[in-house]
Amino acid sequence: MDKLLSMRDAIQEWVPDGASVALGLQLEQMIPFAAGHEIIRQKKRGITLIGPISDILFDQLIGAGCVKQVMAAWVGNVMMGSAYSFRRAVEQDGMKVFNLTNLTLLLALEAGAMGVPFLPTRTALGSDVAKGNHFFCAIFSPFEGKEPLWAVRALNPDVTIVHVQRADREGNAHCWGNFGVMLEGVRAAKRVIVVAEEVVEPEVVASDPNRTVIPGFLVNAVVESPFGAHPSPVQGYYKRDDAFFRQYHEQTRTKSDSDAWLRRWVYDVADRRAYLNQLGVCRVERLGVKQHAYAAPADYGY
Amino acid sequence: MFELGSFGSAGQTRRLSSTSSIAMCQSPTLSAETVSRYTLGELMVASAAREIGDGEVVFVGMRLPLIAFVVAKKTHAPNAVGLFENGVIRTTPAPELIYTMADPPNILGATECLDMKGVMSLLHSGRVDLGFLGAAEVDRFGNLNSTEVRGPQGLTRLPGSGGACDIASLAHRFVVLLEHAKQRLPERVSFLTSPGNGDGHDWRKRVGLPRGGPAAVITTKAVLRFGEDGEAYLASVHPGVDGEEVTANTGWKLRVSENLVSTPAPGAAELQAIRAYDKEGFWTK
Questions:
Q1: How does DSSP assign A21-33, residue by residue?
Q2: Is B200 on the interface with A (CB under 8 A)?
Q3: Does A167 reside within a domain?
Q4: Is B270 among the residues known to form the active site?
Q5: Does A21 reside within a domain?
Q6: CA atoms within a 13 Å half-sphere pointing along the CA-CB vector of B131
Q7: What's the mean pLDDT in B137-148?
Q8: CB contact under 8 A, B160 and A86
Q9: How many interchain CB pairs under 8 A, A with B?
């Protein structure tokens, strides 16, 4: 089944107001900025954001007023520190944050993926992150030892959005680089949007099943979006635009600065092509791969 | 650029050299004068690097520790293994400077590159020796806050745990890097994000943590370590800093080691490794 959609149609169809949306699951790599910006342009409201860490995309969605609450381990700008819209939303507007840790978010998604109500862990025993947090319940091991554990509640996002290198039109997706919690986030989700640098023929994906991280039958929409993860990196396609993260930090200190940033980079650009035009040919070329490093071919023959 | 001192002036404090694993040899490429000048960032990175034993498995973390791991690999700990929570395992340093653990140079040539579960399961089962952490606040018992601070100006929301709570809970020991200021070193953290020694000896065992605890807090003025009772003490002061300056800028009555020494300055090999990597001094200037 051909699931190829434009970004506009994919977000319109699969990300309703009030949805819980998991994104940025590969940590600092392959963050689906193009999808996030389309959510902002379509003025989605009441969104619950889910992700381990967020390298400024959460901050942008929060600054744009899309977000009701956040379930995350870390929200900020990894290279620079704080993210100002997130801070303003929590400090001034009382936005709800479910404090998780990377491992407990992973377990919540894994429990969701497995269809069990919780998974146990020893992390965060004695930590305040668990206080008044419905993701945590104190239990004791039912087996010998009876040691104390946290039960971490299962989490099933309404939509998980991932950015990958290539996918076919059914959504079978290849990804390389680091996965973070993407595999769990995809399997826990009720719906999945795959954003790919390139849409390729099914034979390309089928040629290397070990690199297939998402089976197409779990996918609802496929979007082709070259440079769709900028300013985060995509291995083999473009590097991280470090200056962009630095500039974002400097250009979003106040609410009006943040609004101006969103106008310039999101509202006033119609789509990713316009965004890239604004970024400029020079910058785009500078971020591109300078030295290819292909893996040795794997022989699946028999 | 901070000028923190030189090999020639140990100041009021005695110099630690016998326990240092770093050879203070002259580098073939850095002159004695170059080596005598170093930044605070370089001193902290070198100090962090020395916490890594050869052959140890290290959860590397963000910011300065990214370089500390590289420096350790290139100097005294060539067999250290680095784990990154995005799923990367490295037995070689990344070929060029990285700002985040997921930067493409940290993927290229990695030993393994899979998912968070792969590395977090190793952490959970006790196969990680050391983890590095940052925080907004560290208290008397080495508990960390990176979630929120409630003060006279109201609430300050911080980014959150990330993997810090997991590393503090589950690694065999952890090391913190911190700006030394009174408000960053309160008697008790206002929010306990990542568990240190709780309220003292035996606390970790009581709450069910399987192992671990803080080994050192490397600040911009000093290095704190922890006694049997779980409480921090001043173990070394950085060159040019005196002990009173440290205790006056700490939020509780900080105990001082009877063997207070000067934090060893970065050696030539360490400085060379730092400068070859962080060429523009983004992390270390």
A1: EE--TTTTSS--H
A2: no
A3: yes
A4: no
A5: yes
A6: 33
A7: 98
A8: no
A9: 181
Q: Indicate if the pLDDT at residue B6 is higher than 80.
A: no
Evaluated on CA atoms B114, B115, B118, B122, the torsion sign reads positive
How far is A295 from B9, CA to CA, in rounded Å? 52
Instruction: Indicate the number of domains in chain A.
Output: 1
Domain that holds residue A64: 7-117+154-287
A31 touches chain B (CB under 8 A): no
- The alpha carbon of residue A179 is apart from the nearest alpha carbon of chain B, in Å, by 5
Evaluate if residue A185 carries a pLDDT over 70: yes
In a domain, A170, yes or no: yes
**What is the Cα–Cα distance from B12 to B20, expressed in whole angstroms?**
19
Q: Quick check: bond before B28 cis, omega within 30?
A: no
Residue A265, min C-alpha distance to chain B (Å): 23
Residue of A nearest to B62 (CA): A78
Confidence of residue B152 (pLDDT cuts 50, 70, 90): confident
In a domain, residue A36? The reply is yes
User: Is residue A147 within 8 angstroms of chain B, CB to CB?
Assistant: yes
Q: How confident is the model at residue B23 (pLDDT cuts 50, 70, 90)?
A: very low
Judged by DSSP in three states, A38 sits in: helix
Q: Which two tokens stand for residue A247?
A: 């500039």
Q: What is the CATH number of the domain that holds A67?
A: 3.40.1080.10
Whether residue B95 lies within 8 A of chain A, CB to CB, comes out as no
Residues of chain A in contact with residue B108, where contact means CB-CB under 8 angstroms, are: 293
Residue A174's SS3 state is strand
pLDDT in the model for residue B7: 29
Asked if A96 has any chain B CB less than 8 Å from its own CB, the reply is: no
> Which residue is catalytic, options B42, B51, B56, B85?
B85
Q: Measure the CA–CA gap between B219 and A99, rounded to whole angstroms.
A: 26
Query: Distance from B20 to chain A by nearest Cα, in Å?
Result: 31
pLDDT tens digits, A200-258: 999 999 999 999 999 999 999 999 999 999 999 999 999 999 999 999 999 999 999 99
Question: B177: part of which helix (H) or strand (E)?
Answer: strand B173-178
* Predicted pLDDT of residue B151: 83
In the predicted structure, residue B29 carries a pLDDT above the cut 60:
no
Whole-prediction pTM: 0.93
- Identify the pLDDT of residue B34: 61
Beta-carbon separation of B165 and A240 below 8 A:
no
- Token pair of A286, please? 């500078």
